[in-house]
Amino acid sequence: MCGIIGYIGGKPATPFLLEGLKRMEYRGYDSAGVAILDGTGIQTRRAAGKIAKLEALLAKDPAEGHTGIGHTRWATHGPPTERNAHPHLSADGTVAVVHNGIIENAGLLKVALQDAGYEFRSDTDTEVIAHLVQELFEGSLEEAVINALQKLEGTYGLAVVSSRDPGKIVAARKGSPLLIGIGEHEHFLASDASAILAHTRQVVYLDDGDVAVIEQEGYRVLDINAMPLARHVNRIDWELGAIERGGFAHFMLKEIFEQPQTVQNTMRGRLIIEDGTSKLGGLNLSHEQLMAIDKIIITACGTSWHSGLIGKIMIEELCRIPVDVEYASEFRYRNPIVDEHTLCIVMSQSGETADTLAAMREAKRRGARTLGLVNVVGSTIAREDDGGIYLHAGPEIGVASTKAFTSQVVALALFALKLARKRGLSVVRGMELAQALAALPGQIQEILDRAGEMEHIAEFPVPGPRRELPRRARGGAEAEGDLVHPRRGISGGRDEARAHCAHRRDDAGGLRDAARRGVRQGRVERAGGEGAQGEHHRHHVARRAGAEGHRGLRVPHPGNGRPADARARVHPAAAARVLHRGQARGQRGPAAQPRQERDGRIGDDARHGSAVATPARSGAFEAPRGIGIPPQVPMNLSRVRDPMAVIAAFFRRQEAHHPPSPRRQ
Questions:
Q1: Whether residues 217 and 299 fall in one domain
Q2: What is the CATH number of the domain that holds 182?
Q3: pTM of the predicted structure, to 2 decimals
Q4: What is the dihedral of CA 611, 612, 613, 614, to 10 degrees?
Q5: Domain range spanning residue 602?
Q6: Which of left, alpha, beta for 256 (phi over 0: left; psi -120 to 50: alpha)?
Q7: Are 135 and 117 a contacting pair, CB within 8 Å?
Q8: In sequence order, which ranges of 479-613 are alpha helices (DSSP H)?
Q9: Are 356 and 301 in contact (CB under 8 A)?
């Protein structure tokens, strides 16, 4: 989740670096920093926490220069502190490095460098690279970096600058994405296209094993042996507004509301309603190859894996081809049955998911055809697959996937429709499915147009008295354990949220259940003794009590972590008999109702409409906040002075209507 940004040109580098780091904040991070070549050396500024802290530090102590690199770090080696934040300097301060990934042999290299006299100032694996480049430097920064890379094991996306070779940034990629942005008399480096979209749309994506030398007037791409490579220039078609919130409270909400358009974009030019099929020009599969497929494997991670589960249903239903959906992280560690008649569909929003990329390479090695469903044009999966379908959903900034998920499902539906028509699906059925797909954007829009109604229902799902959580300023809701409403800014502690939910549960129709819980609990609390054995005994007594009512009883076992007063069902007559037997044994008064004493619950008997009031700890009855009293209750509970007398009268009426048999006395 780390981010890399670099700039070299004729303008001050710091504003570009800060802007790029802010564009990548959505990726998550715990510290940030920059390194600037100021003409005399390297100036570094680092801060743990938000980028705002780094910005304040630079405002107080500026670092000026026309070449620089920046980084947002998500801690893997060492805690999120300033000394572990990137960039990291070499021992002599002439080399600065930022790095995404993990150096697996960092421990061995660290020991060797310490033996050579190098002193380490951080807990990170990245500092090894800085010292190694210094050790191997012989006049050319790119040569030193290439020599250092040959000693590294693991994954990396890195950027290096040096005051001993100041006119360049050297970047390298292995397993972590990097791209070069091409400007006029300036160039950029980034791990995410959104970081530089405001300044250029011309980008070059680096492949694994590439080393790039970026200068103000141009760039070169080399392999690990310093041989030049040709790389294609791609154009980013996203609009700048696509990576801005556009008035929404956060990116996830914005992307939810973009789904009618993104679903339409995924289908645009591909759905042929009159023929009941779809046109997918990027599959690179002939009619004979499509007909030869006898098995499909969908491999992905996270949200993409879940969309694959839906794709499995559609493909098997329409095409009658068996489909397996596998986690990409597990695929390459077993021995899957794959041959030349297997189609492997790999799905990744970014097109850079490491496990999915490795699974695709393994499937290709075994002879399968690969089909990539990705959102980012020019990504690694898009470049290496045999064919593919672009989602055209636009940049997804929110970490929780929304529009990419629905676009993946639609893309799978388009593929299933095409394959099914090839394999005998009737044109009439195909037209029905195509028309249903064409109607999707409008149906999604109809749902989103009612967002206000749904938000209201989500906040207050039942009628009756309402108690809102306290409203606080949005900025004050960052305290530990706070819950924040995404659009209204309603926040509160978790205890308040639980109380709010309990109020909604007990409001209106909850009185009867509250009474049943209270009567049942009177017996359960008296049963058994202290400790675990007593708790288990009370659990089984409660189950026997519930068995006397024809509706049965749901009683949580004491070891399952659910609250002891979870809602249960006990027939009122059975509950009355249980409590009556307890009173006959001389257990009356407060000892018979310990749960009610704590909670002050109230209830009504379903058959007779009689109210039952139980005392609060203070001795005077007080209804819980938020619980409304139904109009059929025939007494004013607020004036009850002796609740136990009311309970005794209730049971006397029960005995008059249902005298206990001699066997039960």
A1: no
A2: 3.60.20.10
A3: 0.64
A4: -170
A5: 507-664
A6: alpha
A7: no
A8: 494-506, 511-526, 531-547, 572-584, 594-599
A9: yes
With beta carbons less than 8 A apart as the criterion, state whether 381 and 360 touch. Answer: yes
In a domain, 376, yes or no: yes
Do both 46 and 137 map to the same domain?
Answer: yes
Question: How large is the average pLDDT for residues 498-518?
Answer: 44
What 3-state DSSP class applies to 254?
Answer: helix
**Domain count of the fold of the chain:** 3
Is residue 232 domain-shared with residue 267, that is, in the same domain? no
pLDDT digits (tens, 9 = 90+) for 21-55: 999 888 788 999 999 999 899 999 999 999 999 99
Instruction: Report whether 249 contacts 240 (CB < 8 A).
Output: no
φ, ψ dihedrals at 605, nearest 5°? -80, 130
Residue 581: strand, helix, or coil? helix
pLDDT in tens, 191-246: 988 899 999 999 999 999 999 999 999 999 999 999 999 999 998 887 777 778 88
CA 182, CA 233: separation in Å to the nearest integer? 9
- Give the bridge partners for 377, in sequence order: none
Residue 228 lies in a domain: yes
d(CA 176, CA 169): 17
Q: Same domain for 283 and 230?
A: no
- Structure-token pair, residue 265: 């974009």
How does pLDDT run across 397-422, given as a tens digit for each residue?
Answer: 888 889 999 999 999 999 999 999 99
Q: In this structure, are 405 and 266 located in the same domain? A: yes
Q: Domain holding 331: CATH number?
A: 3.40.50.10490
Answer yes or no: do 167 and 302 share one domain: no
Sheet strands (E) in 95-200: 95-100, 156-162, 169-174, 179-182, 187-190
CB 78 within 8 A of CB 84: yes
Are 308 and 325 a contacting pair, CB within 8 Å? yes
Distance CA 620, CA 235 (A): 75
According to DSSP, the β-strands at 491-492 and 602-604 are unpaired
Q: How many CB atoms lie within 10 A of CB 264?
A: 19
Q: Among all chains, which residue has been given the structure tokens 């001389």?
A: 586
Whether 477 maps to a domain, the answer reads no
- List, in sequence order, every residue forming a beta bridge with 285; answer none if it has no partner: none
Q: CA 250, CA 486: separation in Å to the nearest integer?
A: 8
Least confident interval from 48-62, 100-114, 238-252, 353-367: 238-252
Last residue of a domain, one of 448, 480, 515: 448
Cα 471 from Cα 616, distance rounded (Å): 29
- Whether residue 642 sits in one domain with residue 591: yes
